[in-house]
Amino acid sequence: MWGCGGLGRPGRALVAPLGRTLGAAASDHYGQTFQRGPGGFRENYRKKMHLTSNSARFICLTEMKSSTSTTKRLFNTSHTTVDSKEMKKFQLLAHTWWDEHGVYSALHSLNDIRVPFIRDTLLNISSDHQLGSPLSGVKILDVGCGGGLLSEPLGRLGASVTGIDPLEDNIKIAEQHKSFDPVLVKGVQYKSCSLEEIAEEATETFDVIIASEVVEHMVDLETFIKYCYQMLKPEGSLFITTINKTQLSYILGIVVAERIMGIVPEGTHDWEKFISPEELECLLESNGFLVKTVNGMSYNPLWGLWSWTENTSINYAMHAMKCRVQEQSSSKEPPSETHEEQHTAEASGNTTVGGMVIGKQ
User: Fold this and answer.
1) Which end of the chain is more exposed for a tag (fewer CB within 10 A), N or C?
2) Residue 178 · residue 150 · CB < 8 Å
3) pLDDT confidence of residue 55
4) What values do phi and psi take at 56, rounded to 5?
């Protein structure tokens, strides 16, 4: 999860970096302001360009479904996302969540960029927000919330947050820390459960689902994505931050970060569970999502700071939205430019781009 920026050759840039705006916005403690003027977030925030060839998109989805590679995640019969071996690792660290200089120090500093990224992305989708409480009315599910490091700042922005974690000790720590801030008592709720357990009672319940530094610890990623689709409201947002599966991420994220520098405890990560942005995008789009943004993230272990970068070869953040019915059906068959499809799109108030039906946003 923690890679070191500035080392190695830059990888393929999937999207322009968010730039300094988010870094500046972070200085206000995930601020109560939203920059809209020239040079602000809106200009730096650019939607990711999707595959330009219709046939390429179809091949991508087809290969994703038929691949027998070791990195493919299967929707297995157990329908579980929790890896019991991973839980044992984190059980031993439950008491350290709020130690800003401890093993989770990098997660504390990650809030400086991930909270503004989530906030500003949501504000760009909808301009209906309250001054001083920009995420008021937004229902968020924080998957693998741990001790509540991300749930709390989102709650202070006005969101109604449900944090879930399969480790009961993590939830106890989160509840205890939340009790010190009266603002969070009603706005943030915690549950000790897995994603599949809460999914049974939460169909189309949430506006946003967040999995930050979580998917690289899951036993079944496709099951996770299917449950997220089930639990999100139409056109809801899914935010993921995770680690790319590259040689560089193995060297810096495991060998250097774990074995040499001790930024995180040795054995925290399994390189085989890492996933590339391209594979994750195909997996999402084959299960009803449309990827909107991919940004590289860089961690400087000397200063303990995160920053945005065009380089996605180690850490990256992704934002995807739950598709409308038209978008789902168009991803199951090879798109074709026909008058009938265009007529259907126009009748529903949508537009067609490269043969794909895209809903208004």
Assistant:
1) C
2) no
3) 39
4) -65, -40
Each residue's pLDDT tens digit, 315-342: 999 999 999 764 444 444 444 444 444 4
Alpha-carbon separation of residue 36 from 42, 127, 130, 153, 292 (angstroms): 6, 11, 15, 21, 19
CA dihedral sign, ordered 24, 29, 30, 35: negative
Q: Look at residues 281, 285, 292, 342 and name the one whose alpha carbon lies nearest to residue 320.
A: 292
- Identify which of 192, 126, 196 has the alpha carbon closest to the alpha carbon of residue 159: 126
What is the dihedral angle through the alpha carbons of 73, 75, 81, 86, rounded to the nearest 10 degrees?
Answer: -40
How is the chain split among helix, strand and coil, in percent rounded to 5?
40, 20, 45
Query: At residue 137, does pLDDT exceed 90?
Result: yes
SS (H, E, C) 231-273: HEEEEEEEEEEEECCCHHHHHHHHHHHHHHCCCCCCCCCCHHH
- Render 98-126 in DSSP notation, one character per residue: T-TTSTTHHHHHHHHHHHHHHHHHHHHH-
Phi, psi of 228 (to 5 degrees): -60, -45
Alpha helices in the chain (DSSP H): 20-26, 41-44, 54-66, 84-91, 105-125, 151-156, 168-178, 184-187, 195-199, 221-231, 247-250, 277-285, 325-332, 339-347
Mean pLDDT for all residues in the chain: 74
pLDDT (average), residues 106-124: 96
Q: Is the pLDDT of residue 83 over 50?
A: yes
In angstroms and rounded to an integer, the radius of gyration of the C-alpha atoms of the chain is: 20
Q: What is the pLDDT, as a whole number, of residue 104?
A: 87
pLDDT at 330: 46
Residue pair 167/87 in contact by the 8 Å Cβ criterion: yes
